[in-house]
From TrEMBL:
UniProt-annotated location(s): Endomembrane system; Membrane
MF terms in GO: ATP binding; ATP hydrolysis activity; calmodulin binding; metal ion binding; P-type calcium transporter activity
EC number, as in UniProt: 7.2.2.10
Gene: LOC107496459
Keyword Ribosomal protein among UniProt keywords: no
Gene Ontology CC entries for this record: endomembrane system; plasma membrane
Protein name per Swiss-Prot or TrEMBL: Calcium-transporting ATPase
SMART domains: Cation_ATPase_N (SM00831)
Domain of life of the native organism: Eukaryota
Amino acid sequence: MSYGKDDIEAPRSSGDIDDGGSSSSPFDIARTKDASVQRLKRWRQAALVLNASRRFRYTLDLKKEEEKEQVLRKIRGHVQVIRAAYLFKESAKKLNSELGIAPHPTSTTGEFQIGLELLSSIARDHNTATLQEKGGVEGIASLLETNLEKGIQGDDTDLSRRTKAFGSNNYPRKKGRSFLMFVWDACKDLTLIILMVAAAASLVLGIKSEGIKEGWYDGGSIAFAVILVIVVTAISDYKQSLQFRDLNEEKRNIRLEVIRGGRRVEISIYDIVVGDVIPLNIGDQVPADGILIVGHSLAVDESSMTGESNIVEKNSKNPILISGCKVADGNGLMLVTAVGINTEWGLLMANISEDNGEETPLQVRLNGLATFIGIIGLSVAVIVLVVLLARYFSGHSRNPDGSVQFTAGKTKLSTAIDGAIKIVTVAVTIVVVAVPEGLPLAVTLTLAYSMRKMMADKALVRRLSACETMGSATTICSDKTGTLTMNQMTVVEAIIGGENIDPPHEKSKLKPILCSLLIEGVAQNTNGSVFVPEGSNNVEVSGSPTEKAILHWAVQLGMNFKAARAESSIIHVFPFNSDKKRGGVAVQTTESEIHIHWKGAAEIVLGCCTQYMDVNDHLIEMDEGKMNYFRRAIEDMASRSLRCVAIAYRLYEMEKVPTSEDLAHWSLPEDNLILLAIVGLKDPCRPGVKDAVKLCQKAGVKVKMVTGDNVKTATAIAVECGILNSYSEATEPYVIIEGKDFRAMQDAERLEIVEKISVMGRSSPNDKLLLVQALRRKEHVVAVTGDGTNDAPALHEADIGLAMGIQGTEVAKESSDIIILDDNFASVVKVVRWGRSVYANIQKFIQFQLTVNIAALVINVIAAFSSGDVPLNTVQLLWVNLIMDTLGALALATEPPTDHLMDRDPMGRREPLISNIMWRNLLIQAIYQVSVLLILNFRGISILNLAHKSSDHALKVKDTLIFNAFVLCQVFNEFNARKPDEFNIFKGVTRNYLFMGIVALTVVLQIIIIEFLEKFVKTVKLTWQQWLICVIIGFISWPLAVVGKLIPVPEKQLSNSFRKCTNRVRRCFCRPEKL
């Protein structure tokens, strides 16, 4: 794929891998995701801005970011002070104890036997002494009326009294900006301020010279037009802010599991109450302050609170868990002791305002384009101002009746000032129209619209830039399980005791020892659970899809989960590891035997086995023949797209088990294992995923599968999903590769083969990271999916990180740019469509706005030079600006995506914003509008047969008709802008109610302006014949657009050629300085 390398909006930077820090242009930031503060400051300083508070509202507030860091440091310091005070208090308590002084009794809270302050202080102050005084976690649980195994009751009454006693897991939000603040921001536009001053001066002078009855129209009409612009702008901005506010609430609403009434239930983080028992797994966020009940290799990253990036192990000696921290390793159960504002995290969140501003690459580029156009417009306005003032004060400007407007020594001072003010207001209004202030803001508008609609398509956007970058994606690296498949696993095949058991849950062939060992291994070596409600046979299984499938299978084999867990006690757990592809547990049985159970990727666990147990409970040596039998069985299952999981165990000597101090660092033995079973789990492909993959391929987006599964399983699924067309394709070099092989290559080798890869099996998160890095070095725009904690580096490194909403950990979600709420690949493809829609909508708006810019500027400049007057006055230009800026953006930037967007290749990150097709369209329309309106300006009186009327009235009719025709041209051209490269410009228009509403509103308001507001806008009423002429002039733009689309455009981008010319001119000007 070829990308544009030099265009006027975004000159080439040093590369796509960094943020373009060494680029010559401040507006060339290919990747804002990691852009430096200096880089962000640079483009802000270079932009030509009329209203900084509005223009930069949705960019990152650099000042606020610094303030946020200061607040964080203060609160972290506050934590340290509290802990120091606690140590001092403990020392005093010890001294009082030695002196025989009794401590003060602790208060209680309502129905509970422990007070809010004391309970909150345990975690906040790391008050382990008080924890021990109260009997440890068991004592606190008793005071909170919590069963550590079954959790709280969880009924409405119980939840209500806990919330009343200890508060809710929420914190006070800072109030959003009110509508009046948006009005105030809109008032800060420099040109509008100048116009208001001019309106006030014109009002005073008009009333003084013509009286209040007639003299207020000039100044009043300008003031009214300015107020209208301000109000419409504020309403548009306010609505956007509400959309962003709603989306932010969705981002904060984390779903998690708690244990209530003996079962695991999923709730919102806001519904957690004190006393809840919460399972914690790797990648989870600690949702409240609490105490560890039981943990297995549990380690927590507390950097969000302490500012120090160290991993803290949690055990009985250090059981305090702080809200907002992340689980870095292991798993466990916690008892909630404080929620919401009573936690340090709640205090921190309540004291910092979350700044959701973020510049996007397109936003920065549009600021560059707006600055370029604005400089031209400003130059034109200055020229017009100088020419009109020179003509006015030299006596060359005349009134409609032919009299000279200014005569030195004769014209009154107030009249001269009034004339000069009118000229200044025209020049300033040209600046308002010429500087496309709304162009960068159109990005925010279309992103706000797209993000809201994407929620309905099961995609939650966390970073604005990802929404548009997704439209440029050339490669999607997708997980298999849950994304391409349904994540609904069932055990469909089982080899137990060396025999194929059919059906897989048929236990009549199994002897007691083999069956009991299998059940023990499944029940203890899991982070899932099985709940059987009293008086019901409906089994409720929770956990990951793989865990649930195996637990269901074990239940069918006769497992009583609760009884099986009680028959042995867990000594140590090695949580499932995505690098080792297995997890293990050491348990002590009632006979004081140590059993070590392993479960994981079949071929890896099989490689650790030296024996297997047959169906008669006999241990058989694993000879070469039997090993090959098992390997063939695994390959056969994998070729039928089954996930293969092996279950094995071994005995271990009690005396070799480490002591309690060393137990946490014990590496479970994984050699000399005894194979018990190999199970095949079926996870069917999602319906529609094959069509989604084909749509991506048609759109020029390569889909690569990256999975931890067996290569043969991955290949079978890839063929089923359409990533591979056939099994014969899999035989081509490097199309299928194992993670370890890719990892072993040198960087140069990886770069050579990375584009050939379609499937990577048995990959680790680090392999995924290496794949993303290699693709980005090949200048691909990479989207990558991930759900695990270890996927975080790849998600961050990718241009677009896509975390899974159902299976994804909080760590993965926080590292991502977009969360796929239903874990479905089809939703990923919808995000691609929306990303392309953002870019396409912005281009539509650019084409529409530049047509207006060019036409308005050329008409006014030529008229100013030739006659010393302009046909479009201040109020009319402000109305055109409103149509072009706010209403035009609303109409065109909110077009929904169409399938046509997926018929083209991805848009390169540096391809010109103004394509050759756009240049052709806008130049044809602008030339047509300028030609027709200038003809009317210079020959309108004769063409319209107005010569017999008074010169003043004839001039007003002509100017009114020019203004009306100009506005109607924009209305008709709005339809053309919808489909820049399609002939049918009306396709889907009736489904876009906002577009139709804005067009209708524009037409209605235009009729009101012409027919009823003639004194305000300086127009006269038109006859139906004159209205028909205006409509015909506007209508001609439709067939003209069709004819224009038949004109071929060159492949070489005009924007690039223009850029090279300007570079040569710049070098010519700079050469003398260098000498």
